[in-house]
Amino acid sequence: MTVTLSVVFAASTFTPTPASAASCTEFHKARTNDSWSRIAARYGMSLSKLLSLNSAKTSSMILVGAQICTSNKPVLVIPETQYKRKEIVAIIREIWPDEYEENALFVANRESNMNPNVVGGVNDCCIGLYQIYYSVHSSWLTNIGVTEPQQLLDPRVNTQAAYALFKRNGNSWKPWWTKSWRP
Predict the structure, then answer these.
(1) What is the DSSP string of the chain?
(2) Same domain, 51 and 94
(3) In a domain, 107, yes or no
(4) For the chain, which has fewer Cβ within 10 Å, the N-terminal or C-terminal residue?
């Protein structure tokens, strides 16, 4: 009697899963010849950041069609509430001391045209009336209760953050200086 022994090898494949799928906000659909380093370079991020976002290692195989997390940057949802210009002016005048009001109005007008829903700058870095750069200032913004970039779309919160930034800079308008404007 002859016994035939069949051995089946199952290839172990890895489909990247973000560390927290709910926190991933941007994806790349894997293509032929993609590698972790090529994807990182394509999205202008470090290899370690890409691997961390995907709970992966450099040896982890990428399957064509797999969804690779490329960002966990929060997505800002523009509020439906529309403010009239006079409401914005009233908020600014309420929060800023009298001696700084006119410059505060000028800066808000220049930065956002008094529109609290503006998100601009490189990679949408800057938020709201005063175009607060959330990722740069997030560490101290928590001290005034701002824990999410979305909060800066509220004109009152943004104005309070701008005034706090002004005070942190020694009552200076330096965060908003331009070549043509320095009060």
Answers:
(1) --------PPP-------TTGGG--EEEE--TT--HHHHHHHTT--HHHHHHHTT--TTS---TT-EEEEE-PPPP---S----HHHHHHHHHHHS-GGGHHHHHHHHHHHHTT-TT-EESGGG-EETTTTEEHHHHHHHHGGGT--SGGGGGSHHHHHHHHHHHHHHTTS--GGG--SS---
(2) no
(3) yes
(4) N
Q: What is the pLDDT of residue 7?
A: 39
Q: Nearest CA to 32 among 65, 56, 58, 70?
A: 65
pLDDT of residue 121: 84
Split into its structural domains, the chain has a count of: 2
pTM, 2 dp: 0.65
Please report whether residue 6 resides in a domain. no
Q: How far, in Å, CA of 173 to CA of 167, rounded?
A: 9
Whole-number pLDDT of residue 72: 76
Query: For residue 17, what are its two tokens?
Result: 């899963």
Residues 92, 44 share a domain: no
Q: Cα(127)–Cα(74) distance, rounded to whole angstroms?
A: 12
d(CA 50, CA 71): 8
Q: What letter represents residue 86's amino acid?
A: K
Residues of the chain scoring pLDDT < 50: 2-21
pLDDT of residue 77: 82
Cα distances (angstroms) measured from residue 142 to each of 1, 66, 71, 131, 152: 77, 36, 22, 17, 12
